[in-house]
């Protein structure tokens, strides 16, 4: 079974630039999560999708972050414009039916904003 | 105060030792996840449990819902077990601990 695919693995950008991350969840998984993990901290949920609808985006900085999952399959997370404090690993995870089912994580995208 | 507290933050063990990592949480949950994160790597789900105990090979996870506490045990630890172990609870949202960094020395 293919796992959660994320790209790119690494990205370095200057502050105020834009960046986009891509995630392809496990086939058939209805729930997709984006997390931000700052070095030394646990992951923080940015947004949770159920199919193509948003379940929870309460911690997403909506002035600069956006995410979509148009066809209920793969998803993109965008930051525009990036700030230095956005440097983190961005993790995508999927599960078949929400928080009470096992979540599978991608390798993450390590973003460095300089 | 974090909703999920893990201890210890850092742990160094000799190969073969029995290891315990603890997780306490303060919110109502429907499930608790133990995750493993290797340096530079992604996160792997080790266990999801809502009651009792689960065992996979040398790994054992237990949860006490009444005490809001879970433990992850590693028997006969090996250097390849070196990683960060993260406890996450599923309540009205996911809450994550900050992780326990484990180093197993040969």
Helix count of chain A, per DSSP? 0
Low-confidence stretches of chain A: none
Order of helices and strands of chain B: EEEEEEEEEEE
Provide the residue-averaged pLDDT of chain B. 92
Structural class of chain B: mainly beta
Largest sheet composition of chain A: 7 strands, mixed
- Helical fraction of chain A equals under 10%
Largest sheet of chain B: 6 strands, mixed
Number of helices of chain B: 0
Low-confidence stretches of chain B: none
How is the secondary structure organized here?
The complex is a heterodimer of chains A (114) and B (106).
Chain A: E1 5-7, E2 10-13, E3 19-24, E4 31-37, E5 44-50, E6 53-56, E7 65-68, E8 75-79, E9 88-95, E10 104-105, E11 109-113
Chain B: E1 4-7, E2 10-14, E3 19-25, E4 31-37, E5 43-49, E6 52-56, E7 59-64, E8 69-74, E9 83-90, E10 94-96, E11 100-105
Parallel strand pairs in B: 2-11
Antiparallel strand pairs in B: 1-3, 3-8, 4-5, 4-9, 6-7, 7-8, 9-10, 9-11
Can you put this structure into words, describing what you see?
The complex is a heterodimer of chains A (114) and B (106). Chain A has strands at residues 5-7, 10-13, 19-24, 31-37, 44-50, 53-56, 65-68, 75-79, 88-95, 104-105, 109-113. Chain A is an all-beta fold and 114 residues long. The mean pLDDT of chain A is 91. Chain B is mostly beta strands. Chain B has no helices and eleven strands. In chain B, a hairpin with a 5-residue loop joins strand 4 (31-37) and strand 5 (43-49). Classes of the chains: A mainly beta (114), B mainly beta (106).
Offer a concise description of the structure.
Chain A is mainly beta.
Q: Which properties best describe this structure?
A:
A: 114 residues, mainly beta, 7-stranded mixed beta sheet, B: 106 residues
């Amino acid at each position: 079974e293919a796992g959660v695919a994320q790209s790119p693995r690494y990205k370095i950008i200057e502050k105020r630039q834009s960046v986009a991350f891509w995630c392809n969840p496990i086939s058939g998984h209805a729930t997709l999560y984006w997390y931000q993990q700052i070095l030394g901290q646990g992951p923080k949920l940015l947004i949770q999708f159920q199919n193509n609808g948003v379940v929870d985006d309460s911690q997403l900085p909506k002035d600069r972050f956006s995410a979509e999952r148009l066809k209920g399959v793969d998803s993109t997370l965008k930051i525009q414009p990036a700030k230095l404090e956005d440097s983190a690993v961005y993790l995508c995870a999927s599960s078949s039916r929400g928080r009470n089912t096992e979540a599978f994580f991608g390798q993450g995208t390590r973003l460095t904003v300089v | 105060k974090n909703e999920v507290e893990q201890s210890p933050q850092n742990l160094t063990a000799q190969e073969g030792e029995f290891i315990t990592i603890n997780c306490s949480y303060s919110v109502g949950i429907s499930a608790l996840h133990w995750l493993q994160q290797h340096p530079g790597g992604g996160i792997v789900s080790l266990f999801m449990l809502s009651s009792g105990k689960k065992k996979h090979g040398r790994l054992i996870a237990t949860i006490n819902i009444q005490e809001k506490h879970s433990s992850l045990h590693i028997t006969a630890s090996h250097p390849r077990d070196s990683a960060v172990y993260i406890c996450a609870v599923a309540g009205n949202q996911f809450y994550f601990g900050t992780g326990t960094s484990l180093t197993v020395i040969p």
